[in-house]
Write a structure and sequence with these properties.
heterodimer; A: mainly alpha; 80% helix; elongated; B: ten-stranded mixed β-sheet; four-stranded antiparallel β-sheet; 15 helices; 29% helix; globular
Chain lengths: 311, 513
């Protein structure tokens, strides 16, 4: 337990350092003059001329060597300072606090919905392998995973908002606004988790200990509750950890499509405007969230599967 | 277990769908009017996001403009000019209150304008020597030289008048406390702005009580928001959506010409482009009608001259239009000594007619237009290589002299009077977003004359001179104009679109009964 936490902490530190260095190098190697990009981000490119760009360059000290700026960023990071957005002038921490809340809300609802949809359907399919239901689930899940989130989102808006008029198409402001973006993410997640649950169910029900449960006289329902569910949930949860990448990538797309003011959206805009502290800050928080969620998955698996404690 | 989960899911979904929410349960008069546009709210500073607060009618400027772009009184009730155009004296509109209840004073105006002058925008480009309060009711602006577009500069959104309590000690804006018919109740960057009716407004009270601005960057999202009825006014429709929305019976699609134009910025010091005849040949090779109809699906935007019809006084209907004529183009180039080489590309004294065209994707149509131009210029034997970078490459390339051709979108109503923009673009030194290594004494003199001019007939003659020089000499080659498109719900009455993009005019609208 402590070993897991220590390992994850070390991992978090390394992730932070690598993200910082990588974003820094990448942003500085992007083509174009940063001063003009930042000025365009601030004032709109219509108002950007050389005078405005030079003012930005002087104000931010962009003509100093890049290595100095990186050193300053590292030093700030050690003191838990993320700097100030070059575009809005607001501290990065404040901007991220505002946006991260919206993204976490979206991600958690998406995970919750995907668990509600994926594993139950997968288990049902796994209990009746080869049935019509199993084959339909197979086709639908392959289809959903193959479709880009952008397309799933558009289809959902079209069906639920435009055609049925049930939910708002985009924007944010109430619980109702969150459902479609979360569902867009959840369907992609559920497509995979239903497959994992189905295969795990198949493996478990075919196992010797499961058959023994049936032989000793337990009803099918009781056998599954006692010997099936817990065994099926371990691979499902482990895969959820792997799928977090899909979630992080999905948040960027879905937030832009649904005009949701989250961190993925902020990252895209920060890159366009070459807002280096914002890029570093958002990438850092997303990276750390990834580590944190993976650690949480580890812990839960640890609790569900007693065999791990002995190992 | 396996039976209860789907039932539970259905129950949760049903409960969430049934959640009460305002647009569905409140009385029609109470529902907010939602405007959707692609422009995000980056912060509170008028130099950065001023347009959003003016368009949503939270903040007002000292001077307003009418349909023609001519200055009309706003927070300044009247003005007079003396000392040969160097001293402007403005009378404040009395009985105006800011949203925090404090009265509009001359001191407040001076503070707001001084802060605006200190930031990149437009006031910093006017020859202002001093902005001073004169008693309680007047503001005096002293110029170092006559500058007739001053009123238009004062109408720019970066010069909006906010209450003294809006500013921190360093001039940064902490809160939007304006004088408009709507009061900001919440700013949620980058997406949302919520407003409600301001009951102490000095003008006519608006009929609609609450308004919302929502920024949605994706064209697909905006289209769907219009179709689903979540938004009542949606701006910047993509060409494919315009046709679909036009068939929707609950929406009206409107298109208004904007004072914005896509041009080829030409480096006139580049050997092959130095002669005006070469620039005319390039212009003659461009199939503007084809580009407008096929790429933009708006046949009326093919540019026949630099200034679009929406620009009132500056659009000269009598000017011979720019057209396509490949034979004439080839004849002009032959006159200049260019002969087709083995691969069809023109050559002269061993040098090929090859140029690099820089453009940027900030406006998504530009790279598309660039590929069409590459193709069309090749037909007359000009080899164009496209380099897509970002918008900063144009001013940077202008400054270091490496730009050859640039495909740019230029907004001539940065201030409502385009003279301010023209001065920056076509002055003796050229401009980052205008002429490069090109100047014309007649045009410079005409602009100087306009700056100090008060005589409308004389001004008209100077404008004609300017437009004809630009049409003949083509320091920038116009390609297409812009149309602003919007989908407006038929549930709204009195809706219209402002060609200067200054206001969404929500205060003039009402819900249809």
């Amino acid at each position: 337990m402590i070993a897991i936490a220590g390992y994850r902490l070390l991992q978090a530190g390394l992730v932070a350092l690598m993200i910082g260095a990588l974003t820094f190098v990448l942003v500085h190697s992007l083509p174009g003059d940063m001063a003009y990009r930042i000025a365009a981000g601030r004032y709109g490119y219509d108002l950007v001329d050389t005078a405005a760009a030079e003012a930005v360059r002087r104000e931010l000290g962009l003509d100093q060597p890049a290595i100095l700026a990186f050193g300053a960023w590292l030093w700030d990071l050690l003191r838990f300072e993320l700097g100030v957005s070059l575009v809005s002038g607001v501290p990065v921490v404040e901007e991220i606090r505002h946006q991260l809340g919206h993204s976490v809300e979206l991600a958690l609802v998406a995970i919750f919905l995907s668990l509600l949809i994926g594993p139950p359907i997968g288990i049902l399919a796994g209990l009746r392998p080869g049935s019509l239901f199993d084959r339909i689930v197979f086709l639908v899940s392959i289809g959903l995973r193959a479709l880009p989130q952008f397309v799933i989102g558009l289809l959902l808006i079209y069906l639920v908002s435009v055609w049925a008029g049930l939910l708002p198409a985009a924007g944010h402001g109430g619980t109702r606004h969150g459902i479609l973006p979360a569902l867009t993410l959840a369907l992609g997640l559920a497509a995979v988790s239903s497959r994992v649950a189905r295969d795990a169910t198949l493996a478990v029900t075919a196992s010797a200990y499961y058959r023994f449960g049936r032989t000793k006289g337990l009803s099918p329902g009781e056998t599954f509750r006692r010997h099936g569910l817990r065994n099926v949930s371990v691979p499902v949860l482990t895969y959820l950890g792997v799928q977090l990448v899909y979630l992080v990538e999905g948040v960027v797309v879905v937030e832009t499509l649904f005009a949701w003011p989250g961190i993925g959206h902020a990252l895209v805009h920060a890159i366009v405007a070459r807002d280096v502290p914002m890029i570093q800050g958002t990438a850092l928080v997303m990276g750390l969230m990834f580590v944190l969620l993976n650690a949480a998955v580890d812990l839960i698996c640890h609790l569900i599967d007693p065999r791990r404690k002995e190992a | 277990m396996k039976r209860t989960v789907p039932t539970l899911a259905a129950a949760v979904l049903a409960a969430v769908l049934a959640l009460p929410s305002l647009p569905f349960s409140a009385a029609a008069e109470d529902r907010p009017l939602t405007v959707v546009a692609p422009w995000e709210i980056k912060g509170l500073d008028p130099a950065v996001t001023g347009y959003a607060f003016t368009r949503m009618e939270a903040a007002e400027t000292f001077v307003e403009v009418d349909e023609e772009g001519l200055p009309i009184p706003a927070l300044a009730r009247s003005w007079e000019v003396s000392e040969e155009g160097r001293l402007w004296r403005f009378e404040l509109r009395p009985e105006v209150r800011f949203h925090d209840g404090t009265p509009l004073t001359a001191e407040a105006v001076v503070q707001a304008l001084t802060v605006a002058q200190g930031k990149p925008g437009v006031l910093d480009k006017a020859p202002i020597e001093a902005i001073e309060a004169e008693g309680d009711g007047h503001v005096v602006i002293r110029l170092s030289e006559p500058f007739s577009p001053l009123l238009a500069f004062l109408a720019h959104t970066s010069a909006q008048i906010l209450a003294p309590a809006s500013y921190a000690a360093d001039g940064s804006v902490q809160e939007i406390i304006g004088t408009g018919p709507y009061r900001v109740t919440a700013v949620e960057p980058p997406q949302r702005l919520l407003l409600e009716r301001f009951d102490d407004y000095w003008g006519e009270a608006p009929a609609i009580a609450r308004t919302v601005f929502l920024a949605a960057g994706r064209g697909e999202t905006r289209t769907l928001l219009a179709e689903s009825g979540d938004a009542q006014i949606v701006f910047n429709l993509d060409p494919a959506s315009v046709q679909r929305l036009a068939r929707n019976e609950s929406l009206e699609v409107v298109a208004v010409p904007l004072p914005r134009v896509v041009t080829l910025k030409v480096n006139a010091a580049l050997e092959p482009l130095a002669d005006p005849r070469a620039r005319q040949a390039l212009s003659l090779a461009i199939d503007r009608a084809g580009i407008a109809a096929a790429l933009l699906r708006q046949p009326e935007v093919a540019a026949t001259q630099l200034f679009p019809p929406g620009m009132g006084a500056w659009h000269d209907a009598a000017l011979p239009p720019l057209t396509r004529d490949l034979d004439a183009a080839e004849a002009l180039l032959a006159e200049l000594g260019w002969q087709p080489g083995a691969d069809g590309i023109l050559e002269r004294e061993g040098a090929r007619f090859a140029v690099t065209l820089r453009t940027y994707p900030d406006r998504p149509e530009l790279p598309l237009l660039a590929t069409a131009l590459e193709d069309q210029l090749r037909e007359i034997g000009v080899e164009v290589t496209i380099a897509i970078g970002n918008s900063g490459d144009i001013p940077a390339g202008h400054q270091d002299g490496t730009l050859e051709l640039g495909l740019i979108a230029r907004n001539f109503s940065l201030v409502p009077d385009p003279l301010g923009t023209l001065l920056q673009d076509f002055g003796p030194e050229g401009g980052d977003w205008g002429a490069m290594n090109w100047s014309d004494e007649g045009l410079t003199n005409a602009m100087e004359a306009l700056l100090g001019s008060a005589d409308p007939a004389g001004a008209e003659a100077e404008r004609r001179r300017i437009t004809s020089v630009l049409q003949e000499d083509l320091p920038v080659i116009p390609v297409v104009w812009y149309l602003q498109t919007a989908a407006i719900s038929r549930g709204l009455e009195g809706a219209s679109v402002d060609p200067f993009e200054r206001s969404y005019r929500l205060s003039r609208m009402r819900w249809a009964p």
